[in-house]
Amino acid sequence: MDGKILVTGGAGYIGSHAVRQLVRAGFDVIVIDNLSTGHIAAVDKKAQLVVGDVRNLALLDTIFTKNKILGVMQFAGKIIVPESVSHPLSYYDDNFSAVISILRAMRVHGVKNIVFSSTAAVYGTSKEPSIKEDAPLHPESPYGFSKLAAERLICDCEKAYGIKHCIFRYFNVAGASDDGSIGEAHPVETHLIPVTVNASITGREMQIFGNDYQTRDGTNLRDYIHVLDLADAHVLGMKMLLDGKDSAIINLGSDKGYTNKEIVETVGEVTGIPVKWKYGPRRPGDADSIVASNERAKALLGWAPKRDLKQMIQDDVNWRKKHPKLYGKQGNKFSKEDKKHILFYNDSRHYLSFYEDIEAADREKAKKIKIANNL
Ligand SMILES: NC(=O)c1ccc[n+]([C@@H]2O[C@H](COP(=O)([O-])OP(=O)(O)OC[C@H]3O[C@@H](n4cnc5c(N)ncnc54)[C@H](O)[C@@H]3O)[C@@H](O)[C@H]2O)c1
After folding, report:
1. Is 143 tagged catalytic?
2. How many angstroms separate the CA atoms of 174 and 284, rounded?
3. Rounded to an integer, what distance in angstroms lies between the CA atom of residue 291 and that of residue 224?
4. Per-residue pLDDT tens listing for the chain (375 residues)
């Protein structure tokens, strides 16, 4: 096809797997990422990488002018629920303002297709055993609200400007590439499977947050899908839009839930090393139970997850064993060879530092209060 897919956040965990599956499917890909949590080494070398910020309108304008963009996949954003509770400004800025910028650029340059990473957090706690897309939306954290606000804007832009969307609400994502070359490497890892695999490999004790939730064993219950199944769904979602089909909001989940305790036990089974764990306090913003109905994904995309929980854990273990330091210090360094696929740099530091300065000041204040109170 004559043109490129622009992937925002394509150096991050899910984005880098989507880039790889897009390349495998024959698409020409260009990535924009500010490397706040992403890694150059994660980006497929067949894709072009622009190191820059999605909120930078001038940069977007240059990218859209220099390239024929067929559609955008938006992964860029911040993802830690408790952090969003203490830093809402930063979360709305990265998860909502960034979407305003990308839609503005799409409108100006006549690009009509967007695939958007949303989240199950838009539903909040649901009494339904399996959540359908028309379930009531009541996020319980600034993270969830920032994503819901972005969804609303995307839907409004279809009515006003004819920009079509495929909004994916996904649940918990885990696993790594099938060859163990790329995988999950968040700077602060809060996701249960990698945290548990790490605990099993290192022998360090981990915590399960809360044991008084309304679930079968009192620990949070979540729906998990493999990152490659998720990436495949994104490719299908983009193809659906490029084929001229209607916009859609689609859950990506497995229709099955596992409690935190069950995950910890399964990791022990897969690695052969039982995990040391204890209960910790509840975390702010965590819902009791979240499981997705994937009927709509089956009907519209012909998609269903192919890889099960044990496969997700096994692939995460392989990735971690092959990369004990994950992307390590080399993650954002590049060789002359690499530089061929990195287009140019921009002034993303400005965007990176603005709210982080406020957060750093908050942390400093908290430290002083702790010291003053001898805590
Ligand atoms: N990981 C999950 O389990 C999960 C679940 C539901 C939804 N999601 C959604 O999927 C998306 C990707 O999540 P992930 O786990 O890959 O996170 P990630 O932190 O690994 O990736 C996000 C990427 O976006 C980049 N980025 C952030 N802000 C940017 C900006 N303003 N400009 C340019 N680049 C920017 C980061 O550097 C990083 O490479 C997020 O939008 C998240 O809300 C993730």
Report:
1. yes
2. 22
3. 9
4. 799 999 999 999 999 999 999 999 999 999 999 888 999 999 999 999 998 899 998 889 999 999 999 999 999 999 998 889 989 999 999 999 999 999 999 999 999 999 999 999 999 877 787 999 999 999 989 999 999 999 999 999 999 999 999 999 998 999 999 999 999 998 888 899 999 999 999 999 999 999 999 999 999 999 999 999 999 999 999 999 999 999 999 999 999 999 999 999 999 999 999 999 999 999 876 778 889 999 999 999 999 999 999 999 999 999 999 998 898 765 566 666 666 677 655 554 444 445 555 556 555 655 555 555 444
Number of domains, the chain: 1
Does the beta carbon of 150 lie inside 6 Å of ligand 1? no
* Structural domain containing residue 191: 4-371
Site of tokens 């979540």: 222
50 lines ligand 1 (CB under 6 A): no
The CATH number covering residue 205 comes to: 3.40.50.720
Cα of 79 vs centre of ligand 1, distance in Å, is: 6
What is the pTM for the complete model shown? 0.91
Q: E strand or H helix at 225, and its extent? A: strand 224-226
Which tokens in the block code for residue 251? 């859950």
| Rounded Cα gap, residues 321 and 253, in angstroms | 27
Ligand 1 proximity of 172 Cβ (cutoff 6 Å): yes
CA of 77 to the centre of ligand 1 (A): 4
